[in-house]
Structure formats: C-alpha cells, structure tokens
Amino acid sequence: MSAYSIAKQQLDGALAAAAEGGVEEEMVLRALLASLVERYRDLRGVEDLKAVLQYQLDNARGDEDHEFMRP
Fold it and tell me: Are 18 and 28 spatial neighbours (Cβ–Cβ below 8 Å)?
C-alpha cells in the first residue's frame, strides 16, 4: 500500500462520514486541509510547508507535463 492510496482511502472515509452526518463536503475538505497544513507545519516547518503548497498550487490545473528520469 502506498502513501497516496492510504491518503485516498482516508479521504474517501471522511467524505463518506460527512455525507452520512449531513456535513457539507466542502466543509470537510477545508477542515482536512487546515488540519494537514497545521500538522505538516509542525513536522517540517513553515518554509517546507510553503514549498509544498506552492508546488501543489503551481500544478493544480492537472494538465501540466511532469518530466522524470527513467532508471
């Protein structure tokens, strides 16, 4: 199991719980984002947090090509 599959599974569970509880999806996503930002900041510091968030924002459209090297 990868880190991304674990995160996706948890996200799906949180959204399912929200739907069952009558909580709006947007509110749960905002709460998750705030919680993640706080935890990452505490773990890695503000500068690393800024870099990670900037990378995500720069690639938020989802249509960018990402270069990578094959071994």
Answer: yes
For residues 36 and 41, what is the distance between their CA atoms, to the nearest angstrom? 8
Q: Which residues of 47-59 are buried (b: 16+ CB within 10 A; e: fewer)?
A: eebeeeeeeeeee
Q: What is the pLDDT of residue 70?
A: 58
> Which structure tokens are listed for 54?
């900037």
The predicted pLDDT at position 37 comes to 97
Separation between Cα atoms, residue 32 and residue 11, nearest integer Å: 9
- Identify the residue whose tokens are 């090297």: 69
Give phi and psi for 42, each to the nearest 5: -65, -30
Write out residues in the chain with pLDDT < 70, as ranges. 64-71
